[in-house]
Design a protein that fits this description.
Elements lengths: L4 E4 L6 H7 L2 E2 L3 E3 L14 E8 L7 E4 L2 E9 L2 E2 L7 E7 L4 E7 L3 E9 L6 E10 L3 E10 L10 E9 L2 E8 L4 E10 L4 E7 L2 E10 L4 E13 L7 H9 L1 H19 L1 E3 L2 H15 L26 H14 L1 H13 L1 H10 L24 E2 L6 E2 L3 H4 L2 H17 L3 H21 L1 E3 L2 E3 L17 H25 L5 H10 L25 H6 L8 H5 L10 H7 L6 H11 L10 H11 L3 H12 L10 E2 L2 E2 L5 H15 L2 E4 L2 E4 L9 E8 L2 E8 L2 E7 L5
Antiparallel strand pairs: 1-8, 2-3, 3-4, 4-5, 6-7, 6-12, 8-9, 9-10, 10-11, 11-18, 12-17, 13-14, 14-15, 15-18, 16-17, 19-28, 20-21, 22-23, 24-25, 26-27, 28-29, 29-30
Helix pairs in contact: 4-19, 5-6, 5-9, 5-19, 6-9, 6-10, 9-10, 9-11, 10-11, 11-12, 15-17, 17-18, 17-19, 18-19
The structure holds beta-D-glucopyranose.
Length: 703
């Protein structure tokens, strides 16, 4: 039996990490998996995705909202401490996206369960229950904590606490003049006395209740969130929630999420694969929301790290999951890049280029949040100049690749007419203007490939092949559709670039040089390099740049994204060559290695990489620091990569001539895999039993 639950029996193990691991959310809001009594020092977080703010010259980042579930319990005037519980359980139910907490003390049991609604996007709910194990007089303080954790705050210029009848309101006005309102209604079962109490930056009610042995006190909390220009004038929404009642809202949420979860799941006869995949699927599902006007950021909804910005992670690592399980949300992600074209045009102009140079770290309007000093020295804290923003030009090609992928899986050409073709043309124009032509050959000099440890290199193989592909598909689509849109383009110039861009060829051992001059760099092992670090958190780019050690899959990414360009022999040679040189300093790396390993028949290693990728948020051994810059949080690209390993790796999904085909290579001991997927607007079920493939069309709505 599959059991899709993640548990902790001792929260103290790793409080910050557990906040990510037990995260719940609905794409718009992410509620970290912290305990009811926790405060800002425990990184409590209710993140609003795509809502940004900047304090002074500090980093612009997404907002943490006030915490509506702050609760403490007192027995005989003594605060009950969660560490004193005889038994403790925190349980994330992946099927329903709900978090349950149980603490058993000598005299009472605390149980709470919470959800972020997958039906009503701006709604949260929690039920908090105290069961008396003997006759007790209990005091409970519960309400909104406005004193919240902020990575680069303070983000609120004004914080107001208001009471309007039964509704508690916390109102905040941000530096960027957004008004955030949190409405809360708390509904106790029965209680002896209630009073409003004021503690600094808290809006609390105090409940006093006498419980006889075996009796329960139940407190339901209903929360509505508003983000906009001003505070809403009535409390209708939260009152409506109260009227509906906790059970009804909770069940409705669970039912809806469970349907989506089952729709997206992959099942096999290996329970370990099932569980890890389910966790990855969960992490990706809690990021989906049709109301999201931006896109998914690299740390999802787990916190303020990485500026809440959208990287290539979304297009290359996560998009395939949504294409197969929820194409209409996949379309939203593509549309975000169409809407933010202006930001990309402005960026190119700023650096003196034509066309569209997308932000390396894109915020809501496509502006680049990536600073020129993106990491810092681990000892002195001094900022280190990095060239991610100005030189990581593969980002534009990644977006072109994603548009082509979207078309391949959906046939929805409307995207080209809604701005997609213009985006492709502008990206191509950018590559043409970035390129330097020497002796008839185009070079993309002074760039960064995916391996960020080597900056300002010439002719990164991944980037050059991607640029060629981009211009090639652009020209094809332009030839078919440009006249319908009145788009002007220089066909000869585009063709000349396609024909003459420098494409590094494999050497006589079959290895493709990652960039010009890479082969001449120092040979060291990862272990040797580690000994050169001055501090365990030191940014590796500092010590790795003069050596062959790379941060993440680079040439390997090229081989995975363009599987038809190179022979099996070349792929083997490159895998073998780059494997010992890759530090996997980014969680994006393992799935690329996993996918190539599976293709080459090393199924054990492929499985190992699948596990590594799917466990990024289950296993606390992730890098949390780049120098003094905190980079912790959840890793949705890694979850997307894990999904890719199963679907495109072990199940062998390929699209060829408009047809989807499966060439399975199941891992050792696994004889069965099945999942549902969308392809060209239809829904299918695929099952593989002993390498025999069966695909059945499903009626829409069927699971
Ligand atoms: C990786 C990038 C990635 C970013 C966000 C960096 O460490 O090198 O490739 O896009 O993290 O996940």
């Amino acid at each position: 039996m599959n059991e899709y639950k993640v548990r902790s029996f001792n929260y103290q193990e790793d409080r910050i990490f557990n906040g990510n691991k037990f995260l719940i959310g609905n794409g718009l809001y992410g509620l970290r998996g912290t305990l009811d009594e926790f405060t800002k020092k425990d990184n409590v977080g209710l993140l609003a995705s795509g809502v940004y703010d900047q304090h002074g010259k500090k980093i612009r980042e997404p907002l943490n909202l006030f915490n509506p579930f702050y609760t403490t319990v007192y027995l005989n005037n003594k605060k009950i401490k969660y560490e004193d519980a005889k038994e403790f359980l925190l349980e994330l139910d992946l099927e329903t996206a709900t978090l349950k907490r149980v603490s058993v003390f000598d005299d009472l049991i605390i149980t709470s369960k919470r959800f972020v609604s997958s039906v009503h996007s701006h709604t949260l709910g929690r039920r908090y229950v105290i069961k008396a194990l003997k006759d007790l007089n209990i005091t409970l303080k519960s309400g909104i904590d406005l004193d919240i954790y902020e990575l680069n705050g303070p983000h609120y210029l004004i914080k107001k606490r208001l009471k309007d009848g039964s509704v508690y309101k916390a109102v905040g006005v941000t530096n960027e003049e957004k008004t955030i309102t949190l409405d809360l209604i708390q509904k106790p079962s029965s209680v002896d006395t209630i009073r409003d109490i004021k503690e600094p930056l808290k809006l609390l009610k105090e409940f006093n209740v006498f419980l006889s042995k075996g009796e329960e006190f139940v407190l339901d909390s209903f929360v509505s969130i508003f983000i906009g220009e001003k505070m809403p004038s009535d409390n209708q929404e939260v009152k409506e929630l109260e009227k509906r009642g906790f059970d009804s809202l909770y069940q409705e949420h669970c039912y809806t999420f469970k349907k989506r979860f089952q729709n997206a799941l992959i099942e096999t006869d290996n329970l370990e694969i099932n569980f890890n995949l389910a966790y990855a699927v969960y992490q990706l599902l809690i990021l989906e929301n049709k109301e999201l006007t931006t896109s998914i950021s690299a740390r999802g909804i787990s916190g303020q790290t990485y500026k809440g910005a959208v990287f290539w992670d979304t297009e290359i690592f996560m998009l395939p999951f949504y294409l197969l399980t929820n194409p209409s949300f996949a379309k939203n992600l593509i549309e975000y890049r169409l809407k933010t074209l202006k930001g990309a045009l402005d960026k190119a102009k700023k650096y003196g280029y034509k066309g569209a140079f997308y932000a390396w770290e894109s915020q809501e309007f496509g502006q680049d949040a990536c600073s020129l000093y993106n990491v810092s020295d681990a000892v002195s804290g001094k900022p280190i100049r990095t060239y991610f923003a100005d030189k990581q030009i593969h980002i534009s090609g990644d977006i072109a690749y994603a548009i082509a992928n979207y078309l391949k899986f959906t046939n929805d050409y409307s995207i080209l007419f809604k701005g997609g073709l213009k985006v492709l043309l502008e990206i191509s124009n950018f590559y043409l203007s970035y390129a330097q032509k020497e002796n008839g050959v185009y070079h993309l000099n002074d760039v960064l490939g995916p391996d960020e440890y080597h900056e300002r290199v010439n002719d990164n193989a991944f980037t050059n092949y991607l640029a060629k592909y981009t211009v090639e598909i652009t020209l094809n689509y332009l030839k078919s559709f440009a006249h319908l849109l009145g788009l002007q383009y220089d066909s000869l110039a585009l063709q000349d670039f396609i024909d003459n861009i420098y494409l590094p060829k494999p050497n006589k051992e079959g290895v493709i040089e990652q960039f010009q001059g890479y082969f001449a760099l120092e040979d060291v092992s990862i272990e040797q390099l580690k000994t050169r670090l001055k501090h365990p958190n030191e940014y590796w780019g500092r010590v790795a740049s003069s050596t062959k050690i790379i941060k993440q899959a680079d040439v390997v990414t090229l081989l995975v994204l363009f599987p038809d360009l190179f022979s099996e022999g070349i792929k083997r040679a490159n895998f073998a060559y780059y494997f010992p040189l890759t530090e996997h300093g980014s969680s994006l790396s393992s799935s690329m290695y996993g996918l190539l390993a599976i293709e080459l028949g090393d199924l054990d290693y492929g499985l190992q990489m699948f596990f590594k990728s799917s466990q990024a948020d289950l296993d606390p051994k992730q890098k949390l620091w780049a120098g003094k810059v905190y980079i912790g949080g959840s890793h949705p690209a890694s979850a997307g990569g894990a999904y890719k390993c199963l679907v495109f790796g072990f199940m062998g999904l390929k699209v060829s001539n408009g047809q989807v085909i499966f060439e399975p290579k199941l891992p050792f001991g696994t004889t069965f895999m099945q999942f549902n997927f969308y392809f060209l607007g239809k829904k299918y079920n695929l099952s593989i039993i002993n390498n025999k493939v069966d695909v059945q069309e499903l009626k829409e709505g069927a699971l």
